[in-house]
Known about the structure:
Layout: H1 2-23, E1 36-43, H2 48-56, E2 61-63, E3 66-73, E4 76-83, E5 88-94, H3 100-104, E6 109-112, E7 114-115, E8 118-119, E9 121-122, H4 124-134, E10 138-140, E11 149-152, E12 161-168, E13 172-179, E14 182-189, E15 193-195
Parallel strand pairs: 3-10
Antiparallel strand pairs: 1-5, 1-6, 1-9, 2-5, 3-4, 7-8, 11-12, 11-15, 12-13, 13-14
Amino acid sequence: MSDSISVTNSNTQSNTHAQTAAEKPQKDPFGGPIGTIWYLLYCKAKEESKAVMHLANQSVDAFYPKVMVTKVLRGKRQTVEEPLFPNYVFAQLDHGKHNFTSVRSTRGVIGFVKQGKEYQKVSSSLISVFRELQSVAQVDSKLPKTGDKVTVHSANYNNIQAIYQEPKGEQRAMLLIELINKPVLVELDNTEFSLASD
């Protein structure tokens, strides 16, 4: 009698296990979970915008954080918009809707960033932070600030070092140069000097 009960319980457990396994959602072929997840994509240089546009055509929500960068272009101070993380785009993919192979083959996209064998996932809270900061972020890149050491490339000064003082309009700046053991304030074009390397 006890043997019969034992066999019945064993069969019941086996059937329950089989039923649970059958009801468990299947993972997609790329190892991602079921649902909507943010992923990190690696893109071709300077093609982040193109990648986002083509991903949008596939109904994929994608974006990359941008910053306003002040730099010297063609001798003139200019503020331009650049990616905060060059070559990277965040994309929100629905495992039940989007085709991962199509996303990976999107124009401008090189592929998914991986962590081990898994695609790199990004938390939605981090995405929210980037989107909030995007409208106010501004950085100065490769542009000297008052007190910075610069190297003068002008033939007149033979690559000597100077101290950056202040901008003089959009195309020129004031530098402090030591000539014959005496500091002298000179005005030079922005193309004639650059930040000194440490």
